[in-house]
Amino acid sequence: MFSHLTVAAGLMVGDMVFYAIAFVLLLWLIGVFAWKPVNEMLEKRADKISNDIDSAEKSRLEAESLAKQRQDALANSRQEASSIVDSAKKQGQQQRDGILADAQTEVLTLKQNAQKDIEQQRQDALLNARNDVADLSIEIASKIIQKELSANDQKALIDSYIEGLGKQHES
C-alpha cells in the first residue's frame, strides 16, 4: 500500500520509516550511553566550578577580614604607642617638676640656714666684740682714772657705745 507513494527524491516510504526507526534507536542509544555520562560530567564540572567560586569568595572574605583585623591591630598599637609616649612624657615632666620643687625647697632651706648661721655668727661676733671692748674699756679707764670702775657701770657705758656703733653699721 505504501509502495505507490514515493518521494520526489526517489526514496520510498518504507525506507523512510526504516531510517526514522534507526534514527530514534540511535538517539536512544546515544542518550543511554553517551548523553548521561556527558551530562553527569558537565554537572560535576559545573558543581566543581561553583564550589571553587564559593571557596574563592570565602577565601577573599577571610582575607579581607584578616586584613581589617591587621589594620585594626596596627591602629590600636599605634594608639597604644602614642599613649605610652604621652604617659612617659607626663611622668618625665612630673619627675622634672618634682626634682625642681625639691631642689628649690632645699635651696630655700639652705639659704635660711645660712642666714640663721650668719645672724648667729654676727650675734656671737657682736657679743665677743662687746666683751672685748668692755674689757679694754675697763682697762683703759682704770689706767686713765687710776681707779677701778664697777663692772655694772662699765657694762652700761659699753652697751650704749655698741648700740651707737650698731646704728652706724645699719645705716
Q: What structural keywords apply?
A:
0% strand; mainly alpha; 2 helices; rod-shaped; 171 residues
Walkthrough of the structure:
By secondary structure, the protein is mainly alpha-helical. It has one domain. It has 2 helices and no strands. Helix 1 crosses helix 2. The longest helix has 133 residues. The N terminus is likely disordered. It is found in: Cell membrane; Endomembrane system. It comes from Secundilactobacillus kimchicus JCM 15530. Pfam families: ATP-synt_B. GO terms for molecular function: proton-transporting ATP synthase activity, rotational mechanism; proton-transporting ATPase activity, rotational mechanism. InterPro entries: ATP_synth_B-like_membr_sf, ATP_synth_b/b'su_bac/chlpt, ATP_synth_F0_bsu_bac, ATP_synthase_B_chain.
The helix fraction, in percent, is: over 70%
Count of DSSP-assigned helices = 2
Computed Rg: 63 Å
Number of strands: 0
Spatial gap, N to C terminus = 166 Å
Which consecutive residue ranges, at least 5 long each, have pLDDT under 50? 1-9
Query: In oligomeric terms, what are we looking at?
Result: single chain
Q: Would you list the SSEs in sequence order as H and E?
A: HH
Determine the mean pLDDT: 83
- Which outline best applies? rod-shaped
In total, how many domains does the architecture comprise? 1
The SS-based structural class is: mainly alpha
Main sheet specs: none
Strand fraction: under 5%
